[in-house]
Specification:
Blueprint (H helix, E strand, L loop, with lengths): L2 E8 L5 H14 L3 E5 L15 E7 L5 H12 L3 E5 H5 L6 H7 L1 E5 L4 E8 L13 E6 L2 E4 L4 E7 L12 E10 L2 E6 L11 H14 L3
Parallel strand pairs: 1-2, 1-3, 3-4, 4-11
Antiparallel strand pairs: 5-8, 6-7, 6-9, 9-10, 10-11
């Protein structure tokens, strides 16, 4: 049985406890044995090197360098990493090691909760297959991203809330390699209920499956 670890905590505005419970249920339905922890020290546990998948849900906060480096080493060794929204890519802002691992970092969501479109860039990718571009109402994440990521979906900013980004095409969903490990990220899912949007739930469950080590 594949083993997964969910580590949740940090800023409560992203419903980390509810998201952890939902994602735990999805993974168990896919046959994973799932452990849940609530402190960043879990990333420093040598046992994580034997996992199939790690899900961080830990907006902002801090992580000790040794714990971040152990997490990075585990993924380089083949453990999968997957997550969403600020729980993965607005976590541990001071840790450049962690940001290098994830492939991107949140910097703004102009206009806060707004209507925007998610455009699929690789509809034939197994993670996105059968899905179509869709409208969504939530935070539209503006991010600093690693050029090495493989972009699966994007969104385009209008400039209504920040004129200098008018027309900017921003990655929303991506995957990447990090050593022997696979990393998946979706910026969608500001609140837990958004994870039940059919498109978001589908790409998240497939993305986690893709990232997980067999």
């Amino acid at each position: 049985m594949r083993k997964a670890l969910i580590v949740w905590g940090g800023w409560p505005g992203h419903d980390p406890d509810l998201c952890a419970s939902m994602i735990r249920g999805w993974l168990k339905a896919e046959g994973f044995e799932v452990r849940i922890e609530t402190t960043t020290e879990a990333f420093g546990d040598p046992a994580i090197h034997d996992l199939s998948l790690i899900i961080p849900i830990y907006t902002m906060s801090k992580i000790e360098k040794a714990d971040a480096l152990n997490l990075c080493a585990a993924v380089r060794g083949g453990v999968g990493l997957a997550g969403h929204h600020g729980g993965m890519c607005d976590a541990f802002r001071e840790s450049v090691d962690y940001q290098f691992l994830c492939g991107g970092q949140w910097v703004a969501h102009p206009g806060n909760i707004i209507d925007y479109k998610v455009d699929l860039t690789k509809p034939d990718d197994p993670i996105m297959k059968g899905l179509k571009s869709f409208e969504h109402r939530s935070e539209q994440y503006y991010m600093h991203v690693d050029p090495a990521i493989e972009v699966l979906a994007t969104t385009t900013f209008t400039g209504e809330h920040a004129s200098w980004i008018d027309g900017v095409v921003m990655p929303v969903v991506w995957k990447k390699r990090y050593g022997a490990g696979r990393v998946f990220y979706s910026s969608l899912g500001h609140r837990a209920y958004e994870l039940d949007v059919p498109e978001i739930r589908t790409l998240m469950t497939r993305g986690m499956q893709w990232a997980a080590r067999e």
